[in-house]
Amino acid sequence: MPRFKNVSPLGDLDVPDLGQIVEAGEEFEVSEELAPYFAAQPSNYQAVDAAAEALAVTAAERQAEVDAAALAVDEPAASTADEPEPVETGAEAPKSRRAVKPTAKEEEVTR
């Protein structure tokens, strides 16, 4: 059975799949069925024996593939075909008829 060590920065971990609390630094065995899940969490569990190390390498390779695939996702090219053409009317934009009221501070300066 693969062996792992709890190296989590959180210290002791309650691991429901094992039905126990794994103390910080404690080594423990897991079934072949659960081992890939522990191997995929190198910041929490360190592989101790050859079987666990092989699973950890495989998990790291799979994660690298997933990361590379996520980065390789092509975004659709920006298309200008659906954008409307700008319309030139030759007229200037209308100016506001409303007078701008000076602020109280501006009135003090002008007095």
Structural overview:
There is one protein chain. With 111 residues, this protein is of the alpha+beta class. It is 31% helix and 14% strand. It has helices at 35-39, 50-71, 104-110; strands spanning 3-6, 13-15, 20-22, 27-29, 45-47. A hairpin with a 4-residue loop joins strand 2 (13-15) and strand 3 (20-22). It is elongated, with a radius of gyration of 32 Å. The chain starts with a strand and ends with a helix. The model has no long low-confidence stretch (mean pLDDT 82).
Question: How would you sum up this structure in a few lines?
Answer:
With 111 residues, this protein is an alpha+beta fold. Helix content is 31%, strand content 14%.
Which descriptors apply to this entry?
two-stranded antiparallel sheet; single chain; 111 residues; alpha+beta
Low-pLDDT windows of residues: none
What is the string of SSEs from the N terminus onward?
EEEEHEHH
| Major beta sheet, strand line-up | 4-1-5
Q: What would the average pLDDT be, to the nearest integer?
A: 82
SSE blueprint:
Blueprint: E1 3-6, E2 13-15, E3 20-22, E4 27-29, H1 35-39, E5 45-47, H2 50-71, H3 104-110
Antiparallel strand pairs: 1-4, 1-5, 2-3
